[in-house]
Amino acid sequence: MKRLLVLLILLFLASPVLAGEELHLFNWNNYLSKEVVTSFEKSCNCKVVQDYYSGTEEMMAKLLAGASGYDLVIPTQNAVQALIQRGFLEKLDKGGLANIKNQDPGFLNRSYDPGNVYSLPYAYTTTLIGFNEQRLKEKGIEPTSWAVIFDPQVLEKIKGKVTVMDDADELFGAALKYLGYSVNDADEKHLLLAQQVIMKAKPYWAAFNSSSYIKELTVGNIWVAHGYSSDMVQARNDALAAKRDFTVHFILPKEGAVLALDNMVIPKEAKNKKLALQFIDFLMDGKNAAGLSNDVGAGNPNAAALPFINPELKQLTAIFPDQQALATLETLEATNAKVRRLKNKLWTEIKLK
Amino acid sequence: MQGKSWSKYLLSLPPMAYLLIFFAAPTLIMLFASFRYPGEYGGLAPWYVHENGRLTFDLTLENWQRLLGTDIYLRLFVKSIGYAVTATLVCMIMGYPLALMIARSSRKSRDLLLLLVILPFWSNFLVRIYAWMIIFSPVGALTRMLNGVLDLFGAGPVTLMYSPTAMLVCLVYVHLPFMVLPLYANLEKHDLDLLDAAQDLGAGKWRRFWLITWPLSLSGVTAGSILVFIPVLGMFAIPDLLGGTDGIMIGNVIKQQFMESRDWPFGSVLSMVLTVTAVAVVLLGSRLGQRR
Amino acid sequence: MQRRNVLLWISAALVYLFLYLPLVLVVVFSFNDSRLNAEWVGFTWKWYGKLFHNQEMLTAAMNSLIIASVSVVVATVLGTLAGLAMEQSRQRLLQMLVLAPIAMPEILMGVSLLVLFIMVNMTLGLLSIILAHITFCIGFVALAVQARISSMDPGLVEAARDLGASPWRCFREITLPLLMPGILAGALMAFTLSIDDFVITFFTAGVGSSTLPLQIYSMVKLAVTPEVNAVSTLLMLLTLVVITVASRLSPAVFRGE
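Structure tokens for the assembled complex are given below, as produced in the milestone run.
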């Protein structure tokens, strides 16, 4: 009994002491520069409290069930679209956002939120191919297209050294692009074709892997990985730091790829909307926005941030695509229940066979 | 033994009340959800429509029909049960000697030995699995050693990473304490005089084990097997991380319904079927165990 | 007898080896001077240093410990009652209620509890996580306790009753001590489950109540660093110390003597 009492006291002590205003942020881990947070906390005399999610779908499941209390959320564009449709988001008061002029118009006014009524872009990544330069050269493979993960003739030479993302949307997106369709193609016939492409290539893959491919590439266990651009930057830097006898590089396949645009949104139920808006404006300041790219290798939709970004990173078209590359990139759209069911069935079949 | 009729409820009331509120109630909500339509962009669609003063219900059996319309879900269940049974058996084979050894060692050292069994599991799950991934890695010591030995016998190299073997090893690893602890709790109370008596009567060690220790430990074996079999059946993290291209269990598909395809009704259907299957298997198993 | 013991000891030792092989790697890599958990580079304390400056990680570890301790205490009491009740009389409903949460896929349990908490307008936080953890821990305790009593000699209790002991005294002085190894086994399992749960915790956690597993899983997008190994090592040590001290202070409670 005494022990229980002590624990209960501890429980109360541990609950956060409310001092000043708090901004509750729901975000990916390490997706915000620490210095930026500190300087914001100083300027507003408030505290930024972050909770993290490990996948868009987890965050969505939680919000859709009705969880509230977050003042600011950083979801990817298709999640934004779904959240708008479900009426979860607050319209952004543009009057309070002086730094909105810094945003690159190329990333504004997209189909998921025309006119950016509810969301403003925060960062972006592409889904591409990371590879071990030396090992592929030895095998005489020049990766330029999705063929390196889908064509059995190419895969024959690197069997068991390839991983693809464990994500139906991403993998179907890549296969659809390989076939020359849009990543959002929901035509059952085209999806079936994509399924066939995936099935034919599957025996040559080592695994579906969305979590540890950075490490596998860096260690040299895996030679080709389908994954996010920011992760590939990480893998490349890690391999350099570990002084491997190989280098990790990455390319945007010529057929085009998926572009993921992360956004800042305010839920309708947010308690501290004013502070959230203030933080959004703060993050859109060029210097503050640049921190993220430099820290995690994400692309930046903020034009004013470019002068502050590491020039070596900036010249990589896979991270900062030029106009020509940008034209081949597509964002995933939110899909309706029927398409999701179809994709799920096809995906389960792929996994089971 | 008077007062048993009321003490029966006195004992069972608190846990029953708790589980009714925090388990049965939410489960019924989800059971109901399995008859609803999924929301267009996730979650659930409204189950009734109030239009022109008329109330129409929007419920369906479609989610349940979908389960029966194809054999993939059946095959998934069979595959998952296969993994779960294998993992349970391996856990039993590995856990039994360990539990027996702890139960037979001196009173002083028992606590320590028991603590040593559970200690590794207070580190994080993901960290432990990552450690196994280092062990299984093609450049890791274990794989190289194994392939070195295989090479001596003229056999080709094998990959451990991303294989059903790797998956099974981790399934066993993660669930082993759940076999050892109830087994120990059972074995510890066995009357050693019985064994001595049997020895005096000339029974050999294996005979003593099969005639005395094993039958007496059956309730522990049952409890341990339940605690391993059921969680393994619904597992999704290990197949995701280590299973390679064929690593899929029913748990993964259930997770997909709540996550990627945001199809809660079908997720509920699969979950209900899984729960009922698991409970049925367990009740059947314990019935058989009791009969012996 | 002797030869069999040798065989038993060898096989038990091998199982311990199996249990500790990955653990050794976890601990060793927490001192490794490389961001990658891949090969040994050199010795360093830096991950521990970093950890002590990582307020979020420390708070999360604290939350995990609080949640695990409170839910284990409550679940152990409720689970022991359930185990006793199940053994005394065949109560179908109770048996189902105890087994089903173990069998329920954790993701469904997480989502359904979240829906329930939202329905009754409860603020998500430490309390909601604790309530959820108790729910999935009860069954593990109940089964361990049941396994212990199922063939316990009922004659002992009856003899005590015949000698005029009150039911409460019988329970405290005979049943409870005899049950202790089962209760302890159940409590240990419950603690292990609670401290490591991710899925159910994710759904029932509110703002600012992150636990260690939530913190660690969220790092997956950016590769898990050895800092996580460090925090795992420390958590393990801390739990070990707490349990050892507690068992020294009150050996009777822990050993059932």
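The mean pLDDT of chain C is 84. The two ends of chain C are 27 Å apart (CA to CA). Further analysis is deferred to the final report.
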